[in-house]
Structure formats: structure tokens, C-alpha cells
Amino acid sequence: MFFIQPLIGRIITPHFGGSAQVWSVLLLFFQLTLFFGYLLSHCILRITKKKQVLIYSLLYVLGLIVFSFYSDFSFNWVTQNSPSYSILSYLFVNLFFPCLLISSVSTYFQKAYDFLNLGKAYRLYALSNLGSLICLLLFPLLLEPILDNQELLKTWKLLCAIDLVIIFIILGILYFKNDSGEIKTEKINFDQAKINQIKWILYSAFGTSLLVSVTQYTTSEIAPVPVIWIIPLMIYLISFILIYKKNGIYDHESRTSIIYLTQILIFYFIFSSSLGVGDYLVSFLIYFLALVILHGEIYLIRPNEKYLSTYYLYISLGGALGGIFSNLVLPLLLSINRDYQFSMLLFIILTFYILKKENLSIYKQKRIENLYHFSVLLLTIGGLYILYEKTLMHKHYRNFYGSISIEEYKTHKKLVHGVTTHGIELQNSTVPTSYYHPASPFSLVFNFLKSEKINIDIVNIGLGIGTIASYLENGDNLHFIELDPKIVSIAKNEFSFLKKSKGNISIDIGDGRKVLERDNSKYDLVFLDAYNSDAVPVHLLTKEAIEMYMEKLGDKGIILFHLSSRYLNLYKMCDALAKELGLLNLVILDHTNDQFSSKSIYSIMIKSVSHLDKLKARLKSEKYSDLRELKFKKINSKVWTDSYSSIFEILKFKEEI
Q: In this predicted model, what pLDDT tens digit does every residue of 300-311 receive, in sequence order?
């Protein structure tokens, strides 16, 4: 299960333009599959032992046959319309049956372990999660760098076959074990355990909701790649391991201190205005502590092992409900993507309930305790109000591709995607602004091309508000490719760069790489500026992608990348890719940073030495005095390809420029 998750994510993501939401939908699918797997195991445990073994054996053989001969991972029929439901339906058709069987094994064998009197069955839950964690780590660290997608799929099928053999051996032992006992689950008296069952569902739902929201938070702001996506999932698994192992970290003595510490850290995070790598580390710490509390509370009210399958069934039901809430309900409640912050504030309310219900406190004096609780409630209400107020301040839109805000002021209005500004337009003016101001690296390249050719042809992957259209003159042609239909509508109706442009403009909706591959035109400039908030779709920066861009260039063409990022030194990977492909590369830093002009970094890939010399000569002119060629330490890592992408060497832990 935890081998196929990051692999399928990597295969699917390029089909949706690198959208980070793909990973959240994947989490929902696997949570739903886990629930149905536990339900299958729970139902099988209601019949006799020999029937259990026969049914499991039959299902596993059938599952292996179906997966070997039927599964299709080309994703050719996955559509851009209702992408979440399209992805879910595709995964259910191709992966549900084998994943269902795999997910049902854990509960069944824990019951068998208890039946054979081999020890405490709950300890196996920690061991099961440890195995999942190891498998999850092996993917980006060992398997992904050396195997392509098809080889990884074959490896997974081989592992499934090995798993099948092991399961058959264990089932055989159980089948021929000479005793009269039965591996059965006992039915819990709902009236007696009603409160605990509600807590199992509620706490588990909270945990999954946090998993989905923190996954969205990280993948949409850094990069939608497996190594980033698995971090929240790893923390999720680690929390289970540390709690269900022998002498777990959460007990009646430690819970109070952990809850108080988590509350304080949440308020620091909610009211902090900075956005750096350090803040992500704090957010991960909060997320871990919150999961320890939630999963720890579930553990403290666990039933006897004879009710084990019912216990896990309720936990998985909560997980599925949490995934549904975060993926399908919460986006309807919040027009801006502040899901993680919202979930954290709701979690504060839950911890407040736990402290009061269990009469937990670190304060000896009741007056100080009440003052603390009053402050917590006041800050929570304040945080919720701030989130609510933000939804009222400007126009907000939200869809599968992210959250979009149009912020309008007296002097200008701007488009904000997630937390990143994607375009500024001055009132009653079409002067280019932001990363494309008149003395920007884009201006340098555009004016150079115009000096070489009267009319130029440009393809721009990533529309934004269409700012660069203001550069066009009569006879120039600009072809935009934009993934999100809502962005196209906003650029046309809310901003005026497209309307007032002198050049010829065309717009295609779809993934930039796919659309450009079908395009037979030749361009003077291929411009890459496609961000989802601050995260760049990695599949647009691979060796194969750049080879395709080169095919679309005319004889004297240029590939231009806008690479500004809070968290990644993308220019280093671009430089390594240019070297790999035998291209000349010029990295330019724009120091300009005022109200309407933004600091930026660009990479220029070019074939001709003479063209590069001319660009460097222009760079020395007075107009471009705020620009400079960037010198930096080269990286020696493997370049990104369609089958490999590691961000470790280009993570930006401190400002290097």
C-alpha cells in the first residue's frame, strides 16, 4: 500500500499539470480503501476459521489475476472536468481490489496472533506501521532514483506476489492447526461503549483531516513531488508507532504537558506572519504533537483484543470521514485555502474539551488555570475571526488547482494564488509590473529578440493576469497555455493586459507540456512561468521537457524560465539541465523590489554563443542596472527526468543570493 501510493501520485500528477491537490485526492482514495479493507476483514472474522481461509485464498488469487491482466496506468481517459472525481473513479477501477485485500490483512492477522496466544496483538499495529514507514522511505531514497515508473510498477506486482505466498503459508498454518478454537471478533455492546466509539471516529477523523490539510499546505507551497508528499504521511505513521509500541510515549502522565505545549505552538504558528523553512518545521512539529494527542487518546480508550477488528473498523471509518470532509466539504466552507490553520483552531477546541473532561491541568491554582483557558478560547475565537474576515475582504475563488484571490486597492489590484502574488495591474495603466517590469529579465530577453527580428512569436506556459501581453507590438504573436480555466476567465474579465495588447494573442487551456507537444509551430521564445502558488510543477523542468522545448524553438530561439521560489533554488537545477543538454545558461537576478516591481530570478537557456554575448552586453546597460548575472555553487546531483526528481540539493535553507 505504501509503495504504490507515492508511485501512483508521481504517475498521475503530470496529467493534471502538477496540481498539488492530486496528492490529497490520493490520500482520500487510500483512506476509503483502508476502511473497506477493514470492513472486509471484520465481516470475514464473523464466520468459521476454515471458511475464512478459503475465502481469503480465493480473493487473493482473483486479486492477483485482475491486477496482472486488467490494470491500466496510462491515464489516457482521465479528464480535466471534475478532476477529483475523475481521479477517484480511475483509481477505484484499477487499484481498489488489490489494495482492498492488502489493507484487510493487518486486522485479520492481528486477530490470528491473539488467537495463537503469541502476545499482545496491539503491538503488531506498531510493527505494521513501522513496515509501512520503511516502505514509504524506500521509495524516494532508494527505488525512485534508480527505477522508472514501469519498472517500479513491475516491482510492486512482484512484491504483491511475494506477499501472496507468505499469506498462503500463514493461512495454511491456521487452516491445519489442530484445535477447536475460532478466529472471531466479538460484538461490542454499543450502549456500554457508545461514547468511546464516537471518540474513535471523531479523533481519527481529526487526524486524517490534519494529514490532508498539511499535505495540501506543503505540496502547494514547495513542490508536488513524492519526497514532499510523504513527509506528512511519515509523521502520521510515526505517531502510531510511538503510541502503540511497548511503553508508548502517550499515557495518563504525559498527556497534559503534551496538550499544553501543542496549544502554545499552534497559536505561535497561527499568528506568525513569516513564511520560511523554519516555519514549516514548526508546522510539522505541531502536526506531529496533534497526531500524538489524537492517536494517544484513541489508544487510551482501546478495548480488549477480542474486540480488535471492531476497534480498527471505527478508526478507519473516522479516517475515511476525515478525508471526505477535508477534500470535498472544507473547500465549500472556505473560499481561501487556509484548511490547515482552520483545522488547527478546531483542534484547539477539541483539546480544550479533553482538558476539561478529564480534569487535566499543569496549574495548581484554579484561578490561573481558568485564566489560561479563557485566554485559549479568546485566541481561538480571534483566529477563527481573522480567517473569516479574510474571506470577506476580497474576491476569492477555489477549485482543484488552488485558491485564488483578487485584491483591489486604490492604486492597483493584484492576483494572489495561495499566498503568492501572480500579477499586479496599476489602475488605468497597462505598464508591466511585478516580475515583468520594464527593466526585468523578461524585458531584457524580449527587447533583445525584437532587435534581432521585427515580429516575434512567443509561447508562455502560465497565464497569470497576462502581464507580458503589454510588451507586444503590432505583428507580434503570443500563445498562452494555462492549466486552470478560472485563471483564464479572471485574466480576461478582471484585468486589462490581454484586452489592451497590440499583438495577436491566443490561449489554450490544459497542461503546458501536453499542449505544447501537440503544437507544430516554431517559436522565438519559450517562456516557462507556471506556478501553483509558490510551487512549480516539476514535470515542466525535466530533461525530457526541455528537450521538447528545444524542438519548438526557431534557429535563434531562447528558453526562458522564471524561477523565483521561497523554498527551492530552482536555478541550480536549470543550470545542471542546461549542461546536461549542451545548452548555454545565463542566470539573472533582479534586485528590484518596490511596491509594484518584484525581486526575481530567471534562467536563460540559449544555443548560440554570439547571442549569449549580446545578452550579456545588454545586461551592462543603464536600463538594466538592477540586474546582475548570478554566480553560484554548482550541484553535482542527477538531473530531473520524468522518472526522477529529488529536491534535497536545491532546498533553500538560507538566502544565498
A: 998 887 788 888
